[in-house]
């Protein structure tokens, strides 16, 4: 499973990083989220799905 954040859509709500702190962090420059590693470990897949559900901007893509 791969995870990506669209930086053009992300508004920096931080909800993804609160739900899945091992998967997402926020950039100091603009406060937008990014995937720490696009390859999601199997044990983090539930957290990744929860982050997708939590994002009000639908900025997170799982594939
Ligand atoms: S919850 Fe969505 S909009 Fe908010 S920081 Fe995370 S990816 Fe960006």
Give the N-terminus to C-terminus distance in angstroms.
Answer: 6 Å
The ordered H/E elements are EHEEHE
Largest sheet: 2 strands, antiparallel
Number of strands: 4
Q: In order across it, which strands form the biggest sheet?
A: 1-4
Strand content: 15-25%
- Gyration radius, in Å: 10 Å
Mean pLDDT across the residues is 97
Structural class: alpha+beta
Question: What is the CATH-assigned architecture?
Answer: 2-Layer Sandwich
Supply the number of structural domains: 1
Stretches with pLDDT under 50, minimum 5 residues: none
**Heterogens:** iron/sulfur cluster
What is the CATH topology assignment?
Alpha-Beta Plaits
Residue share in helix: 10-25%
Number of helices: 2
Under CATH at level 1, the class stands as Alpha Beta
Q: So what's the overall shape?
A: globular
């Amino acid at each position: 499973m791969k995870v990506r954040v669209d930086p053009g859509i992300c508004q920096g709500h931080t909800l993804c990083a609160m739900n899945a702190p091992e998967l997402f962090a926020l950039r100091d420059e603009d406060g937008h989220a990014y995937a720490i590693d696009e390859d999601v470990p199997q044990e983090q897949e539930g957290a990744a799905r929860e982050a997708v559900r939590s994002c009000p901007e639908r900025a997170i893509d799982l594939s």
